[in-house]
User: Fold this.
Amino acid sequence: MRITSATFVKSAFVENDWPRDSKPEIAFLGRSNVGKSSLINSLLGVRGLARTSSTPGRTQALNFFLINDKFRFVDLPGYGYARAPKEVKAKWSEAAKDYLAMRKQLALSIHIVDSRHEPTKQDLQLHDWLRHYDRRYLTVATKSDKLSNNELRRNLDYARAALGNGVLAYSSIERRGVDDVWRAIETVLKQSAG
Assistant:
């Protein structure tokens, strides 16, 4: 897909602040420090649109980005290792759960896992949520450039055993998997339009 524009729209902590129009949305979900922002930036071919940080848990709200004036990317708060009070973490979790349960504009959820590690308990829980809410999703294993081919193959086998067969290797640095992710996004956007 050719990206003609990508702009930050807003951060929203509660449903009342979510955009109100009917544009389809692609949500990015995963644990803190899994590379969500890097994946978004690499898909769009821009640096710094989605904020990246070496400190886990920087994304604390749902961040909405308008792409080509036609659809939105939504960066959801990460779960897991963020250094935050329990009540704040609970709010993040609730915001993500509410979004998955209620958002009619949600066309595709991209569930991001770290290719270097087996899926965590929270990864499995998110996978169950996506299935429970009957959401279309694609599982993407980031940071695949950090592994040898044998390690990557083995780890993808683990992830597929836990999360299903559709786990795609991705590298923001090598741009591995970019075309495959865009194909999945374009497919759901066509279906949303039709």
